[in-house]
Predict the structure.
Amino acid sequence: MRFILIFISTIFATMIYTQNVDNIKQQILSIQSQPDIYYFGLAEGRQRKETDQKALQELMSKIFVVVSSELTTSTIDGEEVDNDEKLEKVMGVYTYGRLPDVEQFSYKKGPVFHIFRYIKKEDYQKIFENKKIEICGFLREAKENLKLNQLGKSFRNYYRAAVAIEALQEACVTFENKIYTSEIIFDEINSIAGQIKIDLVSNIYEYETCYIVLDFSFNDKPINDLNIEYYDLHDFIPQKTNSNLVQLELYGKEYENMGKLSLKIDLKEDMYNSYNEQTKILSRLFECEELEEYREISLKRKKVKKIKTKRRINPDLNIEFANDANCPILPEFASNLNILFSMLDNEFLDNESIFSDEKIVKRIKQVIDCNHTKLLNYPQKVQINKTDTGWEARQFGMSVSCEGFPTRNETVVIDFDDTGKIYNFGYTINPALHELFESQGTAAGDWDYRQIAIKFLENYKTSYTTKNIEDVETLYSDDAIIITGKVVKRTKLDKEISTDFSDKEIIYFKKTKQEHIASQKEVFKANKFVWLQFDSFNINVAPIDSVYGVSMKQNYYSSTYKDEGYLFLLIDFRGEYPLIHVRNWQPGEWDLSKQMKLENFRFY
């Protein structure tokens, strides 16, 4: 009987699916029968993303048949480029971008996807207007990044703005009362790059390894983000840093007497491009606009500077602790810290007595397994701060490497209790952002809560990057709403919280906490690495005490998927532990008016 019921249910579900497919086909035929009203494109294929891009390409080619007369012949590097080539580039910008005003019908028949893209002819100009909004978003972020000396992020956003401008009919855009063209942006990038100063901090050779430390500055201030490629006598090797100091390690006898180091400052985010298909393809289309900044560093022998003994709490650590908080158990912590760094260097955990509990032991094991994190070999100054639950030592310079992902210099925060035992380890937000939020919080008188919010987000980042599903699960309230898309559906979050979005604005998907955790488990299993990077960051106070809205630009990298967008978290600090009530992920959304913010919620 049970088998019969299952069989009947299967037949019923199949009938409903077939009916839905037939309905979609009828709608597609209806639009195709009205070519005077619609532009459209249809494609079939076994890969959904590629099939969608083919449908978009067909649609955009029809649009540009109409507007191609407005595209004038351009000259690049002294060579004429006809409209056909220009058209190919422009189509590429839209085909591999996101087009929110282009509607879609899709269904799957067997292993084949059928995707239909369409837009009313009277609405096609919206595509160009949305592209202008996106370009202004790139320019806005480039300038914000530059203020914080986040040059890698600034270069990326400037470059993407320049490429996208080529897709506009007028090939320019107005932002903050200034007209921008690709040429103006390229000049701006080159001007910034030319002002980067590079100093040799140390250069030693021991145990058949050459250790080189470089200091990068811009406008006499430390650079907080940069991507470079250095030449190891065989090839250019990518390296990323979130601080001004970069440590390079070259293994082999051939480097014993190396007299100079050649490096290239990444002005197009080539390393980043390999993690973003859209930008990677567009870079090929616009490869005539080469942006290169090569430097040669003279390598004289220079020993690693040692911090004076009296300034070192532990003689084995080349670290000076700024103990303005007057932490009384710093010697005990420094001793445990030395043991921790030794275990990270050897990638073997053989002394668990320095930790407060099993939770931090598990995290350190996953740090070793997933991220191969080691202390960088240069003098460091680390800030000791009092926190709500103990003490923290902030901004250790560490080397992080994951299989299949470029090596990078990151900063780490380590928490310890009143006995000096370590109870947490986290990858930090950018140091420049932390400094900014501390000054804002001190001025507003709520630094205590902002500090908790920052530490919560650093724990959020570390939980994902160490692929610790148990940690991720504890971050969310049981009734948390996880949204992938543009807006949140009106729902009962809490008696005191609701949203102001209408039903018409509900566009993407909503998940429960349980669905998100189940999905994340599969993501962790399928990927060799997962890494989160926060580019921009805002913390806003809600009308309800101890509730905060945190929005940030997030780049997500993994071995099978990569994306960028805006992440919004509604965090409640009223309980014993902070909890996320709402997590909203908006991939590639550059329109500020469409980004979820704290003001989209009403509090009672």
In short: Residues 1-13, 71-81, 271-276, 485-508 have pLDDT under 50 and may be disordered. The radius of gyration is 27 Å. The CA atoms of residues 193 and 293 lie 7 Å apart. Residues 2-123 form a domain with the Endonuclease I-creI fold (CATH 3.10.28.20).
